[in-house]
Specification:
Distance between the termini: 108 Å
Shape: elongated
Oligomer: single chain
Low-confidence stretches: 1-7, 92-103
Number of domains: 3
Order of helices and strands: HHHHHHHHHHHEHEEEEHHEHEHHHH
Largest sheet: 7 strands, mixed
């Protein structure tokens, strides 16, 4: 007896032979044999249908194999997708179907892609020092490569990390050239010179800023007392013996006039008579310079000094940089526009030195005049640091429409860190 379909042709033949010679003699025999015959007929029909499918596939494969057009759609796939076609000519679509009527442009007429990988690198290690200085601001090629090792912390894998088909040297050169801004001041200029489109250029520059910012965070914000004492000029050790001196000043990054009323109010500065961003610049006596974050220009120097957070960072630094097992707090030299004595004292008992402020028509005394002249003379070095902080063209040209505030702040924070390895000390 069979249950369901026959397994194969041999079983079908054996079953049929058995039924042929086993003729039923009684009604009960007929009732017993009838289901077997029905199952046998159904199994034979399934077998014939499978043979027909295999034969059809074989014919289709033969037609496709000897077809003139090897890129035509498989007829079996066409039928499954309801794209009917005639077996005699499977490459002519049905006249009612419009899927294959589009004409492709000949390969000879296609415009070749502008791939940077196909070009000879425009930046190599054979560049002269003069060319490096012209395009990036670094005085020599050696100083440029030294800074790369500094920001990458000596990690060659990170140094040679690439985001596009440019070489690793081209990517770094492009980044610093754009920040320096003398030869490539716009993203469009960078794209035309190096090859990648504007979106890829933005991605490359962002990745390099990320590496620089991480390097800046790894380095201490200030030089230690011993380093400052050893590297500063002798006159400072005479005038400020056993003191940890840092000079602070504010400067501006110009911005366009915002159409939004809130942004216009937050960024407008009466002192600069326009829309600006303001940032703090510090200088130590050894010549190490740095910056704090950019803020909207509407903030006063006093509020910036109180709220930005660098006084707290100075307190933490002094607590970890002990001098003779004791804490030596910072002495902050400010312009007379700051009101900072109280907040500095509350933040680690830091000291403040600034020109004497007096009401109108009141004359300075002898000591006040000497103090004011002395501080003003010393602060001339910090004014030079402010000049260095905006020497990059990306910063000095200001904040324009469609620029990224984050990109501007990244450039502001990393430029002075970079400038310490490019230029001579300002003091």
């Amino acid at each position: 007896m069979m249950n369901g379909f026959a397994i194969n042709q041999v079983e079908l033949e054996e079953t049929a032979k058995t039924l042929k010679y086993a003729k039923p003699k009684t009604l009960s025999d007929k009732l017993r044999v009838a289901p077997v015959e029905r199952d046998l007929m159904k199994a034979q029909a399934d077998m014939y249908q499978a043979d027909a499918v295999r034969a059809t596939l074989a014919i289709n494969q033969t037609v496709e194999q000897y077809s003139a057009d090897q890129h035509a759609m498989n007829p079996t796939v066409q039928r499954a997708a309801d794209l009917h076609t005639h077996l005699s000519n499977p490459h002519i679509p049905h006249e009612d179907k419009k899927f294959f009527h589009a004409e492709c442009r000949p390969h000879s007429q296609m415009k070749p892609r502008n791939m940077s990988a196909d070009k000879i690198p425009i930046v190599t290690l054979n560049l002269s020092d003069a060319e490096v200085k012209r395009r990036t601001g670094y005085p020599t090629k050696a100083s440029f490569l030294s800074y790369l090792f500094i920001v990458c912390d000596g990690d060659i894998t990170l140094l040679e990390q690439r985001n596009f088909s440019l070489t690793w040297l081209e990517e770094w050169f492009m980044h610093f050239g754009y920040k320096w801004g003398r030869t490539t001041a716009r993203i469009w200029d960078v794209s035309k010179e190096y090859g990648p489109n504007s979106r890829d250029v933005e991605m490359i520059i962002s990745s390099k800023y990320s590496i620089e910012l991480k390097a800046r965070q790894r380095w201490p914000m200030y030089a230690s007392y011993e380093e400052d004492k050893q590297l500063r000029k002798g006159k400072w050790n005479v005038k400020y013996a056993n003191q940890r001196i840092v000079m602070w000043d504010m400067t501006n990054i110009d911005a366009y006039g915002f159409s939004d009323a809130d942004l216009q109010r937050l960024t407008y500065s009466k002192y600069y008579n326009g829309n600006v961003f303001k940032g703090g610049v510090f200088t130590q006596l050894c010549g190490w310079i740095g910056t704090a974050d950019l803020w909207p220009g509407g903030v006063s120097d006093t509020d910036y000094n109180r709220r930005e957070g660098y006084l707290q960072r100075q307190e933490n630094f002094a607590n970890n940089d002990l001098v003779n097992e004791t804490v030596l707090p910072f002495t902050n030299i400010y312009d007379k526009g700051y009101r900072a004595k109280m907040i500095a004292w509350k933040t680690g008992k830091q000291r403040v030195l600034q020109p004497v402020w007096a009401e109108s028509d009141r004359r300075f005394g002898r000591n006040e005049t000497l103090l004011t002249g002395s501080v003003a003379t010393d602060r001339a070095g910090n004014e030079r640091a402010v000049n260095v902080s905006k020497r990059a063209w990306f910063l000095s040209r200001g904040f324009a429409q469609n620029m990224s505030p984050k990109r501007m702040n990244d450039a502001w924070l990393t430029w002075c860190f970079q400038a310490n390895f490019m230029f001579n000390p300002v003091l």
